Automatic annotation (TrEMBL):
<dbReference type="InterPro" id="IPR003481">
    <property type="entry name" value="FliD_N"/>
</dbReference>
<keyword id="KW-0975">Bacterial flagellum</keyword>
<dbReference type="GO" id="GO:0009424">
    <property type="term" value="C:bacterial-type flagellum hook"/>
</dbReference>
<comment type="similarity">
    <text>Belongs to the FliD family.</text>
</comment>
<dbReference type="InterPro" id="IPR010809">
    <property type="entry name" value="FliD_C"/>
</dbReference>
<keyword id="KW-0969">Cilium</keyword>
<dbReference type="GO" id="GO:0071973">
    <property type="term" value="P:bacterial-type flagellum-dependent cell motility"/>
</dbReference>
<dbReference type="Pfam" id="PF02465">
    <property type="entry name" value="FliD_N"/>
</dbReference>
<dbReference type="GO" id="GO:0007155">
    <property type="term" value="P:cell adhesion"/>
</dbReference>
<feature type="domain" description="Flagellar hook-associated protein 2 C-terminal">
    <location>
        <begin position="239"/>
        <end position="484"/>
    </location>
</feature>
<dbReference type="GO" id="GO:0009421">
    <property type="term" value="C:bacterial-type flagellum filament cap"/>
</dbReference>
<keyword id="KW-0175">Coiled coil</keyword>
<comment type="subunit">
    <text>Homopentamer.</text>
</comment>
<dbReference type="InterPro" id="IPR040026">
    <property type="entry name" value="FliD"/>
</dbReference>
<keyword id="KW-0964">Secreted</keyword>
<dbReference type="Pfam" id="PF07195">
    <property type="entry name" value="FliD_C"/>
</dbReference>
<protein>
    <recommendedName>
        <fullName>Flagellar hook-associated protein 2</fullName>
    </recommendedName>
</protein>
Length: 502
């Protein structure tokens, strides 16, 4: 008898429909498991959102921990001959400043010129050394070797530049295309000055240029170029320090920048001040540099910490919120993914306890700065939020900025509000033992267990369905055989009955 190709064909029963119903019923076993996995994944996402907000608080705390490095003064004057900037160590004050000279480097330009690419420089037999010697003990001496032969100006320029010394070389061309070697120091100041020296191996004296033959001029010798560069007439700019006067005191610098002439103040010379008179009688016009108290940067850092703390509190409130529903109804989908999470509540309490901590000194609490914890209402319920009384904070900064800094920084290790907050947050954010790492690892472990349960349940469902399908196929075949036998017997009985009547 041929096999049954489709369930129910042999029996006439809706066995495929029954199998589909069984499959649908079996699949419901997966529903709570997939729901669990979704819940755990949502919780991982929620912890990530909280971590992001806590990271902002961590950054704000670290910045506030360095309150002693935040400027509490600012340049309030507008100056023409110079500009100024301040660091945290600067104090308020006024200073008379003039600029008498800007820093320059040495520029020497040979007056001996040559046509481009022509071999105009000759190095006589024997290795020749070109030495750029500094004019001061602090300078750096550089030696450049030349083998015997003919060189173009470009060759000499390239060898100087390839030496990576403190000088650079260029060629300046005039209207007729004749080039002149230009050598300049890379830095400025008196220490940047140099002279060029030349020595030749195994030569008692440097050679002299031969007389011209006919109309063709003999190539210049390298030592002629060197002598030309050292000629005072070839110096286009002399290496010199910048010079300024601060309250009548003359100060020099190898650059146009003067650091800590006044503690915590950097002055940059921009142009020479106007002057009257000549020589020793020259008088430079002074400008007033004003440094005034400015606590704006410190106040902004405090505000940033407050804002970051409030963001953390709002984020936690949103992730733990409970939206009441009617009796007998399912929990609202608007509930926070971390509703009732003990670890998150503990984190919130830790952060709040730091806010109310006290320190030694005239300013001992945030309350002393006009910063208080107040209850506010949000969609997630009551939320504790830091609020600043601007007038109180401004007065504390104006009257005792050093006390504010001491309250925030302490010893920078274990005391000080911001120091302790930064230490606490470092522990919370630790990538090995911090609460975020622990929660993430725990949830990932639970997800793996649920995935194994889903895999096992899926295998069980498939086995049950396969077993039932086989049983239905057997039933279908048996019913088909019974129907076939019944039809045969009915046919035989009918035939026998017909024969009897005859």
């Amino acid at each position: 008898m041929a096999g049954i190709s489709s369930l129910g064909v042999g029996s006439g029963l809706d066995l495929q429909g029954l199998l589909d119903q069984l499959q649908a019923a079996e699949q419901t076993r997966l529903t709570p498991l997939t729901a669990q996995k979704t819940t755990f994944n949502n919780q991982i996402t929620a912890w990530g959102i909280v971590k992001s907000s806590v990271a902002k608080l961590d950054a704000a705390a670290q910045n506030l921990q360095k309150a002693n490095e935040i400027n509490t003064t600012a340049v309030s004057s507008t100056n023409k001959a110079f500009s100024a900037s301040v660091s945290a160590s600067a104090n308020p004050g006024s200073y008379s400043v003039n600029v008498q000279a800007l820093a320059t480097g040495q520029i020497s330009q040979a007056t001996i010129g040559s046509d481009k690419n022509s071999n105009v420089i000759n190095v006589a037999d024997g290795a020749t050394t070109l030495t750029f010697a500094p004019n001061t003990e602090d300078g750096k001496e550089v030696k450049i070797e030349f083998e015997a032969g003919d060189y173009t100006l470009e060759d000499v320029r390239n060898k100087i530049n390839e030496s990576k010394s403190d000088v650079s070389a260029e060629i300046i061309y005039d209207a007729q295309g004749k080039g002149y070697l230009n050598v300049s120091s890379k830095s400025t100041g008196e220490d940047a000055g140099f002279t060029v020296q030349i020595t030749q191996e195994n030569a008692p004296a440097l050679p002299t240029r031969p007389a011209p033959e006919g109309e063709e001029e003999a190539p210049y010798l390298l030592n002629e170029i060197v002598a030309n560069l050292n000629d005072p007439a070839s110096q286009r700019t002399t290496a010199a320090d910048a010079v300024i006067q601060v309250n009548g005191i003359t100060v020099t610098s190898g650059t146009n920048t003067f650091k800590d002439v006044v503690d915590g103040v950097t002055i940059t010379a921009k142009e020479v001040s106007p002057s009257t008179g000549e020589g020793e009688n020259k008088i430079f016009e002074a400008e007033t540099l004003s440094i005034t108290k400015s606590t704006g940067d410190l106040k902004a850092a405090i505000q940033a910490y407050v804002d970051a703390f409030n963001e953390v509190q709002a984020t936690i409130s949103n992730q733990t919120k409970f939206v009441p529903g009617k009796a007998g109804e399912e929990l609202s989908s608007s509930n926070g993914d971390l509703m009732g999470n003990a670890a998150l509540r503990n984190l919130q309490n830790q952060l709040r306890s730091q806010i109310t901590s006290s320190q030694e000194g005239a300013i001992s609490t945030l309350n002393s700065l006009g910063i208080k914890l107040n209850n506010t209402t949000s969609t997630g319920g009551s939320v504790l939020k830091l609020e600043i009384n601007g007038a109180t904070l401004d007065k504390a900064l104006a009257d005792n900025v050093d006390g504010v800094i001491n309250f925030l920084v302490g010893d920078g290790k274990t005391t000080g509000f911001a120091t302790q907050s930064a230490n606490q947050l470092k522990s919370i954010m630790d990538n090995s033992t911090g609460v975020f790492k622990v929660q993430e690892d725990s949830l990932n472990s639970m997800i793996k267990r649920v995935e194994r349960s889903i895999e096992n349940t899926t295998s069980s469902i498939e086995a049950n369905l396969e077993r039932t399908r086989i049983q239905f196929e057997q039933l279908d075949r048996m019913m088909a055989q019974m129907n076939s036998t019944s039809a045969y017997l009915t046919q035989q009985l009918a035939s026998l009955s017909a024969q009897t009547k005859q």
